[in-house]
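FAQ

Q: What does a record look like?
A: Structure on top, sequence underneath. For example:
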């Protein structure tokens, strides 16, 4: 069986007691939540003669199946 390998720069370097390698089915184990819609607030007063727009979007995520992803802990 073969598995794709991805190098993530955000993972910590290999050191004592570090969790530097993750293995698993991330499609099953992690859920990304993307709320529909973008909120736009029009501000015509702050930067005359221009109009400012403030936009926000709600996104989030989290582990939904802890058995699908495992971390390898290194020792000294």
């Amino acid at each position: 069986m073969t598995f794709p390998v991805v190098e993530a720069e955000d993972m910590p370097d290999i050191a004592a007691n570090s969790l530097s390698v993750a293995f698993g089915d991330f499609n099953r184990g992690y859920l990304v939540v993307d709320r529909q819609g973008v909120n736009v607030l029009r501000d015509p007063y702050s930067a005359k003669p221009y109009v400012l727009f403030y936009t926000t979007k709600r996104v989030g995520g989290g582990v939904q199946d802890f058995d699908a992803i495992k971390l390898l802990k290194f020792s000294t």
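Q: Is there anything notable about this one?
A: The chain has one helix and six strands.
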